C-alpha cells in the first residue's frame, strides 16, 4: 500500500498562478506571458489590461498570520519584480504604460486583487 501523494510547494504555486490567471482573464485582462525568469528575478504573470501591461505577482498563504499573502511582497521582492520587468520590456522591445499588481490568495481560494500594488521603475 502506498502513502497518499502530497502536493509539493511548486505544484501548489502553479495551481494558484493558474487560478489567478483565470480570475484576471474573467476580469477582461489578456494573458501575455507567465513564469518569466531571468537572473534578476521572476514574474508570475504578464497580462494586458487595455493599453497597459500588467506585471502580476501571485502570492498564496494558508492564513493571515504574519500579515498574509499581500504583505509578503516586501521591498526586496518589489525591487526584483521591477528589475525583471525592465528585462522583459527590453527583450521584447515593448513601449506601453505598465503597472504592478498583486493577486493575494488565501485559504478557500479567496482572491484579493490589488491593482497598482506598488510603484516600480521600469524605464
Automatic annotation (TrEMBL):
InterPro entries on file: Restrct_endonuc-II-like (IPR011335), tRNA_endonuc-like_dom_sf (IPR011856), UPF0102_YraN-like (IPR003509)
Top-rank taxon of the source lineage equals Bacteria
GO MF entries: nucleic acid binding
Which SUPFAM superfamilies does the record match to this protein? Restriction endonuclease-like (SSF52980)
- HAMAP family from the entry? UPF0102
Q: Which family does it belong to?
A: Belongs to the UPF0102 family.
Indicate what this protein is called per its UniProt record.
UPF0102 protein F2Q65_04480
Q: Which organism is it from?
A: Thiohalocapsa marina
Amino acid at each position: 500500500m502506498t502513502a497518499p501523494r502530497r502536493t509539493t510547494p511548486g505544484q501548489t504555486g502553479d495551481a494558484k498562478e493558474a487560478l489567478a490567471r483565470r480570475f484576471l482573464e474573467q476580469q477582461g485582462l489578456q494573458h501575455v506571458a507567465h513564469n518569466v525568469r531571468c537572473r534578476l528575478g521572476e514574474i508570475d504573470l504578464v497580462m494586458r489590461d487595455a493599453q497597459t501591461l500588467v506585471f502580476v505577482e501571485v502570492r498564496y498563504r494558508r492564513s493571515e498570520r504574519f500579515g498574509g499573502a499581500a504583505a509578503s511582497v516586501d521591498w526586496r521582492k518589489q525591487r526584483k519584480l521591477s528589475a525583471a520587468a525592465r528585462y522583459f520590456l527590453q527583450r521584447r522591445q515593448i513601449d506601453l504604460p505598465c503597472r504592478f499588481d498583486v493577486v493575494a490568495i488565501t485559504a478557500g481560494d479567496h482572491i484579493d486583487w490589488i491593482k497598482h500594488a506598488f510603484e516600480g521603475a521600469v524605464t
